[in-house]
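Researcher: We're teaching a course module on how sequence relates to structure. For the next exercise, students receive a sequence and then see the predicted structure as tokens, so they can try to spot secondary structure elements on their own. Here is the exercise chain.
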Amino acid sequence: MSEHKISLNWRKQGDFSHEGFERQHQVIVSDQTIDMAGANTPGFVDPEQGLTFSLASCHMLTFLALAAKKRLVVAEYTDEAVGVLGQNQDGKSFVERIILRPNVVFEGKAPEHSALLKMHDKAHEHCFIANSVLSKVEIEVSET
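Model: And here is the predicted structure for the students to work with:
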């Protein structure tokens, strides 16, 4: 097992009450500072985006490992992922689903589309983050 540590820093600015408080904060990961805030704050990453990019990144890294094992050379991998909020049966808000839209460009021979879909299914099955969340994950692979 391994540990993956972060530091989170928030400090009161202005009023702090039930009517509102400052949501801007910083997360420090491996000496990198990420400016964060509540949802939809321009210029800041929100926690829902963080969950979405963590899942997309984990899926990509797992996919790349599978491709390398198959001796397939990936030249480029892009994704336009989206996290969608919803409400559960108890009326609580949560990230209901995360849609991954990976686009993979191979050097040399590329796998057939059906094989590519199987690789993405296997990447999802073995992705640590995907195995850690309750959100439904949809993978929309474009045919190129």
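Model: If you want an answer key for the exercise: Residues 47-69 form the longest helix (23 residues). The mean pLDDT is 95.
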